[in-house]
Design brief:
The chain has 391 residues and is of the alpha/beta class. It contains 14 helices and 14 strands. It starts with a helix and ends with a helix.
């Protein structure tokens, strides 16, 4: 198990068994470091066959999926034949709804949702909350935080998404992963000299601002950025950023309507999703809308667009979306971010999950400050004293 999870396991020893008689919907990327999280949950009392792990095809590592199944977990990978007719998240939500019905039919009354992107929250709010006597939620992403209002008046939701550990520690590592994978993609796919490219960033929150810092650290040409919060922008509109850049990195966490922006483009420009899911560019919307204006919609790999690029093309306009408009840092590896680094997020999420089941009062709840500080101190020890390499 990851050192921080081992440490958390010892710290919460008095709560061992708190997850007995609970069922868990675990909506996360099927990556190797998440296996340690589900093992942690088992150690806290969950039965393996009472956990369903719901992955996302664009980020799934096939060996991790196989390992989950071989170890007695129910793991689902949502990836079948995606063709941009709807949001990819809609496919995931349908799978979650199906699992919720199955859980209710089995008579479980206590449900823990460990969520990414608010997908479990949306599915649960839409169909079955009355079937359960207790519901507890831990949410990992800022995108998911936009969905809290659907359940927070009735159930506890632990806000891992905006925790100090995630925003102040993890963000820099996410940005490094995004930029590293982006550079590799540009070099491999376009034989690009990245020192000559002009980079523009949309969204300057925790991740976006860290991406700007990372681009500068590498000596790359970051020409402009825009955020809906004017104090975080150096341009007044998305259009201004796009007009001066060769490649756009979007990290808003919620996306917006790109149609009027793209219709002004009259050259080749590359777009990279540095956010979550395919929501940054909403290509399922652009496909339908821009077809009316003579755009071709081209995908490199039918049904699995994240394995290549997707292009919107018209006359002199060519908009290339790396990895099909899905996040650029999922490269098929078991852990795109090294486990010794991502473990700060994994451990904080597990602390949030235990906090959620120990709380009955509804509302949005922070991860306890003492738990965050405990994990942050251990993280420093693991990362900088090479405890990870010798454990």
């Amino acid at each position: 198990m990851l050192p921080l999870l081992e440490s958390l396991n010892l710290l919460l020893d008095g709560h061992r068994g708190c997850l007995r008689d609970w069922y868990c919907i675990y909506v996360q990327h099927l990556l190797r470091s998440n296996i340690d999280c589900t093992d942690f949950l088992v150690g806290m009392g969950l039965e393996r066959n009472n956990i369903v792990i719901i992955g996302k095809g664009y980020s799934t590592n096939s060996k991790v999926l196989t390992e989950y199944i071989e170890n007695g977990f129910k793991a689902l990978d949502v990836d079948k034949g995606y063709t941009y007719l709807e949001a990819f998240d809609a496919q995931i939500c349908r799978n979650i709804v199906k699992e919720l019905h199955a859980i209710a039919e089995r008579g479980f009354k206590q449900l823990l949702v460990i969520d990414e992107g608010g997908l479990g929250i949306q599915a649960l709010a839409a169909v079955l909350p009355s079937c359960f006597s207790r519901i507890a939620v831990a949410e990992l992403t800022a995108r998911g935080a936009h969905q809290y209002h659907l359940l927070s008046n009735h159930y506890p939701i632990v806000d891992v998404a905006r925790s100090k550990n995630k925003k102040e520690i993890e963000a820099a590592f996410i940005a490094q992963s995004m930029v590293s994978c982006l550079v590799q993609l540009l070099t491999a796919s376009f034989n690009a000299d990245i020192t000559k490219l002009r980079f523009g960033v949309i969204g300057a929150g925790a991740i976006g601002s860290s991406i700007i810092i990372e681009l500068r650290r590498l000596g790359l040409n970051i020409v402009s950025w825009y955020d809906e919060a004017s104090e975080r922008s150096d341009r007044e509109s998305v259009q201004e950023v796009v007009a001066g850049a060769d490649i756009i990195l979007s990290s808003t966490g919620k996306g917006f309507d790109w149609e009027p922006v793209l219709r002004e483009v009259n050259r080749r420009i590359i777009f990279a999703n540095c956010g979550s899911s395919d929501i940054e560019y909403r290509l399922w919307q652009l496909r339908a809308r821009l077809a009316k204006h003579g755009y071709e919609f081209i995908t490199d790999v039918s049904g699995y667009p994240w394995r290549g690029n997707t292009i919107l093309r018209r006359k002199q306009s060519e908009c290339i979306f790396l990895r099909g408009g899905f996040p650029v840092n999922f490269d098929g590896s078991a852990d795109p971010i090294p486990p010794e680094i991502i473990q700060i997020t994994r451990a904080t999420l597990m602390a949030g999950a235990i906090t959620a089941v120990m709380t009955e009062k509804p509302g949005i709840i922070e991860v306890p400050e003492d738990l965050q500080q405990y994990l942050a101190r251990d993280f420093d020890s693991v990362l900088y004293n090479n405890v990870w390499k010798t454990s």
